[in-house]
Amino acid sequence: MMRTRPLKVALLGCGVVGSEVTRIMTTHADDLAARIGAPVELAGIAVRRPDKVREGVPAELVTTDATALVKRGDIDVVIEVIGGIEPARTLITTAFEHGASVVSANKALVAADGAALHAAAEANGADLYYEAAVAGAIPLVRPLRESLAGDKVNRVLGIVNGTTNFILDKMDSTGAGYSEALDEATALGYAEADPTADVEGFDAAAKAAILAGIAFHTRVTIDDVHREGLTEVTAADIASAKRMGCTVKLLAICERAADGASVTARVHPAMIPLTHPLASVREAYNAVFVEAEAAGQLMFYGPGAGGAPTASAVLGDLVAVCRNKLAGATGPGESAYTRLPVSPMGAVTTRYHISLDVADKPGVLAQVANIFADHGVSIDTVRQQGKDGEASLVIVTHRAADAALSSTVGALRELDTVRGVASIMRVEGE
Amino acid sequence: MMRTRPLKVALLGCGVVGSEVTRIMTTHADDLAARIGAPVELAGIAVRRPDKVREGVPAELVTTDATALVKRGDIDVVIEVIGGIEPARTLITTAFEHGASVVSANKALVAADGAALHAAAEANGADLYYEAAVAGAIPLVRPLRESLAGDKVNRVLGIVNGTTNFILDKMDSTGAGYSEALDEATALGYAEADPTADVEGFDAAAKAAILAGIAFHTRVTIDDVHREGLTEVTAADIASAKRMGCTVKLLAICERAADGASVTARVHPAMIPLTHPLASVREAYNAVFVEAEAAGQLMFYGPGAGGAPTASAVLGDLVAVCRNKLAGATGPGESAYTRLPVSPMGAVTTRYHISLDVADKPGVLAQVANIFADHGVSIDTVRQQGKDGEASLVIVTHRAADAALSSTVGALRELDTVRGVASIMRVEGE
């Protein structure tokens, strides 16, 4: 039985994602109506520059006054694809106050201020959904929040930024350096003119915060996420990784501590074995491993960005939110009951791959090995290579606290016989 | 705000999955309560043989009278993990009539009679959820039904039976024949004493029916699914696949026809290129590719069976169904509005790999090529090998209707110069 009065949708932002949302809502209106149980109608589209509105976007719906649009009072759902903190935050909050539910693709905002937004939604009996904020079309928020609601997630490990994966994949397959690979990514449209958010790991860190919060039922903001970008990854690092049977990926890793009393969230480049499924994730694709107590290891893979994939996630949420509206119910809101604290990076246990340039004389290895022992870090393998009075040591450690590994490296830098620390990289996925 | 009166759950069946459900409901009761918003309580467990009840299952809850349990009237949710058509169907229908929602892991029943069960649920304002019926812990039903609700799915291609994947993986990695690999699977507990449901493809066909129905919003039962098992796959087939840079997998494939006016669903062994992500799915793991218009290619990977993974899926559904109960709402029910018909296997377009033993004399290749041309099937590659007056021809076709390929093979068998058809296998995933 279909309701005939349409649900009204306001769209904030009409760039790559917004215009794709508009296109699908127009061309697939009958399917959406059948799946929701009522027609949905685009009631207004707020843009900054109406002269830039794309083909296929109904001109009569376009407005520059986003505030007036979300205050109309007849809007059932607001779709926010503007991005950034403001004006998105104020517009979303205003939408809740005027009775609308919200579907957002805004990872930066949810990662910075998710708790307050969820509270505002709840106070107004509205929904806040944001599947599109993490890894584009790949279902992750809903599987973590709903499919795994009866399980205990211990770890989330993934490639959640397509730009950096494209760059690392190019470096790996062509031997190119970072700048050269970035230039190619920019030329092909995989990197933005200002690539900071991607290459410095801010984008991945926002996604890690969102995933950790949902996975562990606690509050995690982007400020809780340890973040290292990939700008310092060199062609030599990639070559070292290859010699170890590994490749380098920028990983987002969210873990429950072994004692269960805290969690960690971090983004950094890491070596992973070529046999790990994440190693074969090419170009701008994303993939996320989830380890849960009962389910075991699950992997989700797909396009992590782009107009159409992101629109797919937005519209999946739109259908869910509209169904909830019709049922007079709301979907699952924030679940932060565990109140697990987020530990700093030093508490993470991981493995390190360290390349040292050292003097080629007797006793250097013993000196270096002592430093590791003094800091309680156990060495797994050492490879020593001599060249013209200099030598290099490549050391891979066993698992140790990141803080202990950092102070080991600090102490190594103090040694006279250590000419330089050529590279340091964590080793994951084993 | 937590409701204090518990939701009451009846469990039907307490084998491998049921005892794991019981264990998690007991050990993780606080987490489940927090996530649902009310405590859940196991109110009864129906088993056939009470003397076989496992450790950790509260004896005072055990009954042999499943009918009385679902008729109690105070049960909020019935979890059905008995399997098979009857008595599961009658018990589920009775549960709906007495006000309960149902979570089921029963692929055979849902694939045979899903429409009637959904109708019974709807008539009683109840939910029917069955994530655990397809691919164990891997979220598939919910992502297809909810995450992709705003998209148009064109294809589902996957490995959905762990037993057969284990057998094929062993054949591929050790060169073993089918019987030998089956024996190993049985010894390790991957195959049941009677392996028919797995090796003849019935289990995969049930899952294909469920996935096709949800993906294409139409009714598909197991009788609509073309089914071929793997009992006829030989070590020679696997070796041929290797020579082509392929491996053999038992695939479930659900496709929308190119003209959009019908769908197909099938289960059969097929060669897929080693570069395809499904080729690297090892042992008893499952993986499913979903191709959607806007989302692109998504993959879902994980353990497809086993007590704990299946229990994870059951409990995720339990949380959802309980939340719906508390909200006085129901989740998405059957969506079959497209009413797309299911075409028979002959209408599927695919590629064939055919090995023929032929007489080693001039003109044979021309004869064979003519047969393909007569049936409108275009040849991609031919490899010819002579040996002692006999020769073999290995032919790979371009895409053609399965019916045309079948009649081509029929006509080849009639040729005097064709001594035998050594193997025929479809080629997918390209």
From TrEMBL, chains A, B:
Cofactor(s) this protein cannot do without: a metal cation
Species for this entry: Streptomyces glebosus
Enzyme Commission designation: 1.1.1.3
Lineage: Bacteria, Bacillati, Actinomycetota, Actinomycetes, Kitasatosporales
Record-given protein name: Homoserine dehydrogenase
Keywords: Amino-acid biosynthesis, Metal-binding, Methionine biosynthesis, NAD, NADP, Oxidoreductase, Sodium, Threonine biosynthesis
Family under the similarity heading: Belongs to the homoserine dehydrogenase family.
Single GO biological process annotation from the record: methionine biosynthetic process
Pathways involved: Amino-acid biosynthesis; L-methionine biosynthesis via de novo pathway; L-homoserine from L-aspartate: step 3/3; Amino-acid biosynthesis; L-threonine biosynthesis; L-threonine from L-aspartate: step 3/5
Residues annotated for NADPH binding in this entry: 107
Catalytic site: 207
